[in-house]
Batch of 4 targets.
Target 1
Amino acid sequence: MEKNGCKIKDYRVKTFIWDRESLSLIDQRRLPFEEKYVVCRTYKEVADCIRDMVVRGAPAIGVVAAYGVALAAVGFKGKDKDEFLSVIDESIEALSATRPTAVNLFWALDRMKKVVEKNKSLEVQEIRARLIQEAEDIEKQDLEVNLRIGNNGEKLFESGRKFRILTHCNAGALATSGYGTALGVVRALAQNEKLELVIVDETRPYLQGARLTSWELYQEGIPFFVITDNMAGYFMARGEVDAVIVGADRIALNGDAANKIGTLGLSIMAKYYGLPFYIASPLSSIDTNLESGKEIPIENRSEEEVKKIMGVQIIPSYMAVRNPAFDVTPASNITAIITEEGVIFPPFKEKISAITEGRSHEK
């Protein structure tokens, strides 16, 4: 299959499968050792899966949340419109409380809410149909956005040589509708014979790099090797990294970007060694309501994620642990933000404002 000049493989395992009655999610907690789907038939089950990281990655969370609202509509068997609208409101409220940092979640739910607001005069079955269609549109548009991000990012790298890319966490097919943001750029580089290899940060404490990114790359035959997070500086110092490309869960108006914990340290080292540090992210991850990264809410997760690895205890239960899931990379450490509408270079605030205002006028 080919879209926008990019060849896309049909992935053997899909992040999620929607059949208009249920939503099946690949359990990312079990990868790469076991490929098992969790079947959701209610919005509450979807909310649990987002909260428990069965599914993760900002774009994927947004798409899955939209399908959660669609499931609430599908599951309503009555005819009373007020009751139906109440159920939809409850689903949106419950899903919005699952993960506080990823702004794509709120962006997708806001789209679902607007569908309801615009169609309140219609009958229940018609509103239901439009909610289902909107969720499906969000998925399709996410894939298109990912492809454009990959194409735009690939153009940053000169032809005639191959690059060694370091990435953190998982911003690939598993974090989106099937192609990826940071890994979308990696895939585009590989397709255009500009990629030598990928250096994959393991990404403690949840190991999204070691378990998920490396698994995706292995599936496609893209050369890579895994390192522990504290090895990144070693390879940069040796001249074995040409660029860092990561995703983002929320970007403030000034360009500060929240991403998986450990990204901030990578940006500091990349700046020290003079390496380009790119954020690859859809415009839906930009929160223009926030002036800077200081306003981005940071999710704190369970101590158990640090005390255990794949269910094996490595730290005694009585020891105190802190587990922030994200950190914020200042705009001053970011070379550029790669989006579906093009690559944004500093000064970020003026350019982000221009591009997002332009999109709002188009609507």
Target 2
Amino acid sequence: MGDLVPLFPLGSPLFPGIVLPLQVFEPRYRALVRDLLALPEDGGGRRFGVVAIRQGWEVERVAPAEALYDVGCTAELQVVRPQPDGGFRLVTVGGDRFRLLDVVVGGEDEEDKPYLQAEVEWLTDEEAAEEAAGDQEQVLGSPAAGLDEGLVREVASGSLGVLERGVGGLFTRYVAAVAALQTGREETAAAGAAEELAGAEALLEAVAGDPRALSWLVASAALLTTEDRQALLAESATRRRLAAEARLLRRELTLLETVGAVPAPLHQFAGPLGLN
């Protein structure tokens, strides 16, 4: 059996290290927050699992195992603000990735918990030597049998740096292209676009030198489909995640430049409140 984690289904996945504000108003999720607050603050247990809902499917109308994607990410409670109506405003940060093994549906009794819970297995990242060993043929372009392991790691590390710079450059172009679509419209929209562009550049500076953090930033900020984002969340190797993001950003840039349309307002880069 895996660990039991309370679930909070949302329309889009959460990624490690990404801030997620939430407004909690449904009774079952109010109960979830109260249960978490009853735990010791320094015990590491004040977290719940965020899982994305498959597009067009209502969790309540179909089996949860079918309605939810099978890979999610924990949300660690950082700030809890009780509201006069009994709800809560939360600030959480993405923590560890997991895979759903089984979903436990809550009952009416308080002991049964009114919210979904799941048995999960924790997913580890493929980094450093493990990733280098797994990708050495891709990195070197030919079978690497017999090569010095240290050389393979050095080449892999260098290629990861190249990918990091490439994705950072593509993301800057992508945000600039989205911002450009806002210019020529109302003045406030243009000003907001410029502000978001500056914000994206600041975020890139904050994750400079950390390919893993960059990959999660791009996954969360780019206006991708839930399916694309979910595939990035499920990818355990930073190199392969960055390579996928490079392909996705090139695709999105082509659409922006040829069609001249953006799928959602630029202000979504700021991460609006998610309503459960």
Target 3
Amino acid sequence: MTVLPSRRLGPWLMALLLTLCAAGQTAKPEAQPDTDYLSFATDDEANTTEIFRGASPAVVSVTSSALRRTMFSRNIFEVPSGTGSGFIWSEDGLVVTNFHVISGADKLTVTIADNDFPAEVVGVAPERDLAVLRLSEPPQDLVVLPLGDSAELSVGRKVLAIGNPFGLDTTLTVGIVSALDREIRSPSNRLIRGVIQTDAAINPGNSGGPLLNSLGQLIGVNTAIYSPSGGSAGIGFAIPVNMVREVVPQLIAYGKILRPILGVELASDRWTRRYGVKGVAIVRVLRGLPAAEAGMEGARSVGRGEISLGDVITSIEGQPIRNQDDYLSALEKYKVGDSIRIDTRRGDDTMTFNVTLSETR
């Protein structure tokens, strides 16, 4: 075995190290900067971003205020009464929001991209919690949301909500359709049926804002939350767009929902419950209107404070009628001029009437 002298070991090792370093540099090229981070988004993230970018310019903030007078002065001053969301309905400056957002307001301001515009009420539907506003001086190039079809929704579909929760403008939350055909109470205490339930976070201030599908189409108007604490608990509700399609044109044209009528006055739900009446009792039939022409009868006095019931409506086109909400909801399915079958109970007899609906007078 040959032993190298110690004085020759240093130069030999140095040469070996330089050779290895040179080989390593040749085999392992210098790393290049990673530019793929620019396209890191998944397909779902890209879809969410694209929808928000396209829809957010159509979402507005609605601020309401009331005029008040102090007890010590005759001066009138303005008091903020609430804020909510809304969205552009048409390029001529019509805005859709919730009725409860603007209820009781003396002055309305709509904010679009940090610019404030005065607005006035065009029409309201408290029974559907919807309202239409008109901008007094609408800006140019307003963005309008495309309308979807809420009948195509199914549980599990992706949805996106845009609004102004807690005054934080243009906030996006994402979730799914949690359930369909829910019922909630409107500000007028009427039931709103067919409501969409979602777990997309909806908080105070989101009311009136749009609920969108993965195509960026409007499928609902966010209207309420279920929350013991007042914050989002993952249960929010939206009025389906197919209902909005029916209601908004009527609010624009007439200022209210134009529903067909029978021409009757009904006993209150409290009265019917008190006396155990099954159905809705007719108190009075108005002359010259469909119910009178069909031969329906109202209640009448039989002396000593006693009342004899006339017709008690039990069903309309086979749909059971248990209270006034059932009655109104059944009529809202039809148009002026439609002929419908109404079943009643008159004493011990069951009666059937074919009635042609009239318009509101």
Target 4
Amino acid sequence: MKALFLIRYGEIGLKGKNRHFFENKLTSNIKRSLIDVADCRIQHYRGRNFVEVINGDSAAVSSKLRQIFGIVSFSPVATAGLSMENIKEVAARELGKVAKPGITFKVETKRANKRFPLRSPEVSCDVGEYLLANTSGLAVDVHHPDYVLDVEIRDHEAYIYTERIPGPGGLPVGASGKGLLLISGGIDSPVAGWMAMKRGVTLDALHFHSFPFTSERAKEKVVDLTKILSGYGNKINLHVAHFTEIQKELRQKCPEKLTVTLMRRMMFRIAERLAEQRNALALITGESLGQVASQTMESINVIEKVTTIPVFRPLIGMDKEEIVNISRRIGTYNTSILPYEDCCTVFLPEFPVTRPRLTDVEEAEKALDIEALVNESLEKTETIEIKH
């Protein structure tokens, strides 16, 4: 079934001399995202992308476009020739698809083709008069209409539509380099990954698995979360790091109250080494200030001392309700709440230190062979290529 979508972007259009880089990245992302969905022709033309569905399910294409970062909104459009007669006829047909007696409407016109003889207000007025005369039960409301009928007049044809479908906005994935997401099975870290992708970051993901203390179902849960995230971008390489021996060592040799802090420092060490191997420029975490013991300002400060690369925390100022709302919207919530524990809940002390001192932590780490533990974890790391 043939269909045509007009795609709009926002801040990409403000990028000045770098604009073409972002436009080309968005176009290539659209092509890649739709290649397995339908037979489509994708074109970029003067501030717009157009997706023509040659053969396939246009509803599936619409569903996929909702997930492509960089798209602010899009519309299924009908085309008309560059004559007022044809524009009016198509406008009446399109409004007739949604119109019911008693509804209100207005016409808005964008005249990108300045050679067209009528100006935008004149086109809107003529089309509106025609619709009132040829469609029963309609009224004009220029302030709060039930429907807005848009007319875009371009160089070769006009595009007419009544629907604007929101996209996720942001920047195209791949426009801002690569980051390594520390992903657990919880609610927060997938949302953090999604928000990093919204700013154009390509993701690798790292999960710490402590078999047999954490089950294979817990690992499968993280695979499923990563698969959902990959639907908003390209494939994601999920690295599953062996963490069992590290947790055993911490339990046997270190003060129980410092376990959480020491565990997070080990995770950051492993993550930084993996980031270097994978050419990732930053670590990304789901930390929210004050939410748990490891996310107080003092804990964050002590934990981050072991890293030299930037750590991005997209959720740092959000409360739990805000994070949950985003997770519901992006489709990760129902998977995140499945009752399979991750390694962060294993050997959790009853009273963890919430304001650790760096000197105490470094003294406790003297009992560990840190380099050997990090190397063993990296050697046993499994990499899974995940595509939605």
